[in-house]
Amino acid sequence: MKKREAIIDYIVDYSAKNHFPPTNREIGKAVGLRSPATVSGHLHRLRKGGRINFIDKESRTLTVPDEVRVVKIVDFKNGQPYVIELEGKKYVLDNEYREI
């Protein structure tokens, strides 16, 4: 399951930086998969589970629905609340979820 999470993270990061999604070969290279068929298998399972969307036989159509985007932990110190970044905004995550 860690490989699929890495794939989603890569799609989100690559798409944010380049304004278009990666190819299967780029995903494979980034997450350590040599075979495009293996990447395709992971992508189909992720789509079946509702984690990503794409159009069959079309290149660069991968999208990750907003509700499954992984937040990035920006700052964490022992005993301190998490500071996370989601869509360019920073939030504190302790007993509440509030923008900072």
Supply database-style keywords:
single chain; 100 residues; alpha+beta; Arc Repressor Mutant, subunit A; 2 domains; four-stranded antiparallel sheet; 3 helices; 38% helix; elongated
Structure, explained:
- The chain folds into two domains: 2-67, Arc Repressor Mutant, subunit A; 70-99, no CATH class.
- Helices cover 38% and strands 17% of the residues.
- The chain has three helices and four strands.
- The protein has a four-stranded antiparallel beta sheet, with no helix packed on it.
- The model has no long low-confidence stretch (mean pLDDT 79).
In DSSP terms (H or I, runs of 4 or more residues), the helix count works out at: 3
Query: Strand percentage, roughly?
Result: 15-25%
* N- and C-termini, Cα separation: 32 Å
CATH homologous superfamily classification of the largest domain: Winged helix-like DNA-binding domain superfamily/Winged helix DNA-binding domain
Question: Could you write a compact summary of the structure shown?
Answer:
The chain has helices at 2-18, 24-31, 36-48; strands spanning 72-75, 82-86, 89-93, 97-99.
Q: Secondary-structure map with pairings?
A:
Blueprint: H1 2-18, H2 24-31, H3 36-48, E1 72-75, E2 82-86, E3 89-93, E4 97-99
